[in-house]
Specification:
Blueprint lengths: L4 H9 L4 E5 L2 E4 H17 L7 E5 L4 H13 L2 E4 L6 H10 L4 E4 L7 H7 L5 E4 L10 E2 H6 L14 E7 L7 E6 H13 L8 E4 L6 H13 L2 E4 L5 H11 L3 E4 L1 H13 L1 H4 L9 E5 L5 H10 L4 E6 L9 E3 L6 H6 L7 E2 L3 E6 L12 E7 L5 E2 L3 H7 E2 L2 E10 L5 E6 L3 E4 L2 E4 H9 L4 E11 L3 E10 L7 H9 L10 E4 L13 H9 L8
Parallel strand pairs: 1-11, 3-4, 3-5, 5-6, 6-7, 10-11, 10-12, 12-13, 13-14, 26-27
Antiparallel strand pairs: 1-2, 8-9, 9-19, 14-15, 15-16, 17-18, 18-21, 20-21, 21-22, 23-24, 25-26
Length: 523
Amino acid sequence: MYLTQGLHRSLQQCPDAVAIRFQGEATTYRQLGKRVAQLAGALRRLGVANGERVAMLSINSARYLEHNLAVPWAGGVLNPVNIRWSKAEMLYALNDSATSVLIVDDTFSHLAAALQAGAPGVRQVIYAGNGPVPDGLLGYEALIAASEPVEDAWRHGDDLAGIFYTGGTTGFPKGVMLSHANLVTTAMACVIAGRCGPGAVFLNALPMFHLGGFGATNALVASGAAQVVLPAFTPEGTLAAIHEGRANQIGLAPTMIQMLLDWMDANPEQAGRYDVSSVRLIVYGASPISQTVLRRAQRAFPGVAFMQGYGMTELAATCAMLGPEYHTEEAFRTGKVRAAGKALASAEVRIVDPNGRELPRGEVGEIVARGGMVMLGYWNKPEATAEAIRNGWMHTGDSGYMDEEGLIYVVDRIKDMIVTGAENVYSAEVENALASHPAVGMCAVIGVPNQKWGESVHAVIVSKPGCSITAEEIIAHCRERIAGYKCPRSVEFRDGLPLSSVGKVLKNELRKPYWSGQTRGVA
C-alpha cells in the first residue's frame, strides 16, 4: 500500500474526470497527476531525499492536495502544520521533526522569515500564494514550470508517510508517525463503509492540515471522485460551494454544523438563494454531536443520510463509524444514535480492563483498537509509544462500553484531554502556559460543557500569596504562548485545589459541579 496508489488508479481509469473544484476552477485527474509529478521533481531538485520532511502551512487549496501527493511521490514525509498554532508551537513542530522544506501560502507568508530563522533546519521556503514571490522565497508555480515529471519514489507499506502533530500530555505536541499502509488502510475502509465512491462530489470544509480533512482526500482520490475545496469554513461559503459545485457529500465537524444551522436560521432569505438539494450524505466527526443539533440538521436537510466517524490521529483518524441506519427515529428512541459507531472493516475494537482483558458487553472499560491503521508510534518518543501501544492494541484513553450489536459508546475520557470545536487540547499544555505567570501558584485545567463547542477550556487557579490577578490577564498571558483555541474561556479562582493522598489534583472533583446531571463526563 502507498499513499499515491489511488492517484495512479484514477489516472488509469478516469483521467478526464474532475478531481478538484476550487474557486471556480476545475482540475482533472490528468492535470493533477502531471502537476504532482512535476512538483515532486522540483522537490527532488531541491534536495528532498527519501524520508525527508516537508511541511505545509496553508489554508485549504488545490495546491494543498497537490502537496499531499507530491511529497510522497518525491519520497518525502508530510508534516502538515496546524494553522491555529502560535508561532512557538509551529517552530516546535518544525524543529522536532527536522523539517527541511516549508511551503507557505499568502495567509502565512509573513511568518516565513521568522520561522526559517527559528528553525535552522529549514533550508528552503516555497511560496504557494498568488501574488509576487516574496524576497528569499521560491515560487511554487515557477518550480513546477521548470521541472520535468519524475517517477513515483514508491515508498510504501510501513515506510513513514507523515508526521501529524497532536497535543502532548507533557505540555509539548507529539508527532504521530503514520505509514503509507496506515493511511491507505483507513481510506479503503471508508470507501467500503460508503463514505465515497465513483460519482461522489465531496465538499471538504475541514482544514486540510487536520487528519479528518486529509483522510477524506485519500479516499476520494482512490475512488476517482471529485472534491470541492473550501479555503476555510464559513456558513454562507459552505452553502455557496454546495450550490455551485453540486456537492452530494459534505464533511463537517459538529460545531460547523451548528454554526451553519444558526446562520441559516438567522438569514433565511439569503440561505434560500442556495440550492442544496444535491446533498445526499453528511459525515461528521472529530467530536460528538448533540442530539438537538442533529435533529436540527435533519430538519434542515430532509432526506439526507448522516454518518459519524470515531477515532484519533493515532488510528489514522478513524476506527469506527455510525451509519445512517443509526440516525433514524428508532435510533433516537433506543439511544443508539448516541453511539460512536461500529468498528470499520479495517479495525478490531475491544473494551478492556486495566490489565488488557476484554470485558463483557455493557461493562465500562477502556476502548482499544488494533489493525492496519494503528500508528507506527510517536516521533522520538519511544516511552510514550510503548505506553500507548501494548501488544498491538492502541489504547485510546477513552472509556466506554460495547452493546450486543457491537456499537461502541464513549462514556468518559481517561486521558487528560479536552475536545473543543473538534480540536484536541491537552490540559498539560494549558497548565504549562498558566504556570509560567508569576502570580499563579497552582492551577488545573478541565473541560466544561459548552453548547456551541461541545467542551470549553476552564482554568482553576490558586494565586500565590500576596498576588492579585484577573481572568482577563490570565487569558491574555496564555494567548502569547499557545494557540487561541487552547486558551481558557473561563477562569475560576480558589483558595486551594482538591488533592489525592499523593498530591495529585482530583480533576473529577473539579468537574462534578459542571457535569452533574449529564449522562456522561465528556461532551
